[in-house]
Amino acid sequence: MFLLIFCLVCSQGSRVVVSARTYADFTPQATFDIKKCDLHKLEEGPPVQAVLTREEGLQYYRTMQIMRRMELKADQLYKQKIIRGFCHLYDGQEACAVGIEAGINLTDHLITAYRAHGYTLTRGGTVREIMAELTGRRGGIAKGKGGSMHMYAKNFYGGNGIVGAQGQIFETYNMASLWKLPCIFICENNRYGMGTSVERAAASTDYYKRGDFIPGLRVDGMDILCVREATKFAADHCRSGKGPIIMELQTYRYHGHSMSDPGISYRTREEIQEVRSKSDPISMLKDRMLNNNMASVEELKEIDVEVRKEIEDAAQFATTDPEPPLEDLCNHIFHNEPPLEVRGTNPWVKLKSVS
């Protein structure tokens, strides 16, 4: 399946006894109303209710918080000039990656574009590997030679550094439909193409209809449950032999297009803050869980503390791990192929590859 996808202190030495809540005190699962998807060439769409278990909620919360904190740390390291080159951050769009992953299997295949850090995590990469790749270190997920846009994992064919290089899209739509390929094409519509709003760039912003003859869904991409249920629906559509389907996830990025873009020359700070206050994917999940007695404030705070520590440990590794040596420069050109000579910076310098 290709997807284009705490502690109380008391004075005078007195002792405070706090009764801990047990697992039985929490609601094990709850059903939530979710936004109806807009449909194209479909008679029925995903459900308008979703069941969330406590374990799922805690897992989604932790993963999205790791993504958020990881990207904020990347922002900090970039501004310190420890991360160099292109760097596209994913904060604000966490419900897309986590929701998609919750609706498919790790054995499914996933391709994405250059905003790839979140998917590298959900596909099995560790925070240490991602951070070390950003800083160009030997312990990075691509051995320090890929950087922000070129990260890979099992069944994950990485980010792609060229805009639009994920496929000549309309030709791809046509072939996928002709051959009834089990492909989910996903547009994460974060409302801006670099510094241009979709309204200024497109005569029609109904991207879920762009496949013409291919069915499509427009989904609330800020709600992890909406994304999960829509992805399950799309995956079932493909696995049943009906051919490809398109999903447009309406989402929002808090940072600019890349770290070279301040992100406020073409939109206002007030717009960004309004999305944060009304539609933040992490806050939305947190509120659902707290309001339905599926978790406690203290429990979620404890997760936050653990996540911050994991990010700090990863950043420490990413700034102290050695850079790859020069002799590794030409390694891993081909998989399971014999070594070959590669021309160096001039015709007289030869480097030997290791597959």
UniProtKB/TrEMBL annotation:
Coiled coil: none annotated. Keywords: Oxidoreductase, Signal, Thiamine pyrophosphate, Transit peptide. One of its GO terms (molecular function) is pyruvate dehydrogenase (acetyl-transferring) activity. Pfam families: E1_dh. GO terms for biological process: pyruvate decarboxylation to acetyl-CoA. The keyword Transit peptide applies. Residues 1-19 form the signal peptide. Its cofactor is thiamine diphosphate. This is Dehydrogenase E1 component domain-containing protein. It comes from Pygocentrus nattereri (Red-bellied piranha).
